[in-house]
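Support request from a user on the community tier.

User writes: "When I paste my structure tokens into the form, the page sometimes reloads and wipes my input. The last time it worked, I copied everything first. Here is what I submitted, just in case something in the input itself triggers the reload:"
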């Protein structure tokens, strides 16, 4: 008899336990459903998207990459995923995505600067400061062209390669120094320790690699270029010598 009573009590306890579990499950489902419904109330629709930090890349292009648009729920804006999509454009470096309830989204970006371009067949490989490919284009870009160095690039996001790696590094280093010195070379070629190139229009230069680097660092070359620009000289050759002296030979 006692055994039957214990069995009945055990069955009743198991039933109560199952009811409690079922109740908890129902409550959990109700909470989840409520959360989804609340998250998609019109009150939490995205009403304002601000894009900051971009100069060369348009707001429209960044927004298209982000897939964020007005009218979607702010809870459907996942910062990590949005950041990943935006960085498909390799000209974009850092990306920060912030949400502010009820409906504001801020996308803050910083852009990479294209440093150089190299010929690759009928295309041009554009790299950043570290030699990483940011674009493979069918058209020349407004960055320094390295003329005498053929490169290979499988895809964007990888470092450019060449059969002359030492020459490649020297070219990238020179262009970095040029940019830091507030100058611009339209094109350069480096061969046997000598540099030739075009600064602007018909103004070209030549000299030993180390002498050219030194003339940029001590701003001698910059002074000569500025003087020629002020005098509206459009054709000629600047020769850089080892004593830090630069002289200009006009051409017709």
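"...and here is what came back when it finally went through:"
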């Amino acid at each position: 008899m006692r055994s039957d009573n214990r069995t009945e009590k055990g069955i009743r306890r198991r039933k109560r336990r199952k009811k409690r579990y079922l109740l908890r499950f129902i409550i959990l489902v109700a909470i989840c459903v409520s959360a989804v419904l609340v998250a998609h109330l019109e009150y939490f629709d995205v009403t304002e998207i601000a894009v900051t930090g971009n100069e060369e890349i348009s707001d429209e292009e960044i927004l298209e990459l982000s897939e964020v648009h007005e009218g979607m729920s702010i809870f459907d804006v996942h910062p990590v995923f949005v950041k990943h999509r935006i960085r498909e454009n390799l000209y974009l470096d850092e990306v920060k995505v912030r949400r502010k309830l009820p409906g504001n989204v801020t996308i803050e970006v910083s852009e990479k600067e294209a440093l150089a371009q190299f010929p690759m067949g009928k295309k041009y490989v554009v790299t950043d400061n570290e030699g990483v490919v940011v674009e493979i284009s069918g058209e020349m870009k407004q960055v320094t062209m390295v003329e005498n160095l053929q490169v290979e690039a499988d895809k964007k996001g990888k470092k450019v390669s060449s059969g002359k790696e030492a020459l490649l590094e020297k070219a990238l280093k020179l262009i970095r120094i040029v940019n830091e010195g507030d100058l611009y070379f339209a094109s350069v070629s480096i061969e046997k320790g000598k540099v030739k190139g075009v600064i602007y229009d018909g103004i070209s230069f030549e000299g030993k690699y180390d002498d050219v680097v030194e003339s940029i660092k001590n701003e001698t070359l910059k002074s000569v270029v500025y003087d020629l620009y002020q005098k509206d000289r459009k054709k000629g050759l600047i020769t850089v010598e080892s004593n830090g002296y630069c002289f200009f030979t006009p051409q017709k």
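Agent notes: The reload is a front-end session timeout and is unrelated to the input. Helices lie at 2-39, 59-66, 79-86, 165-180, 209-217, 220-230. The longest strand covers residues 92-100. Escalated to web team.
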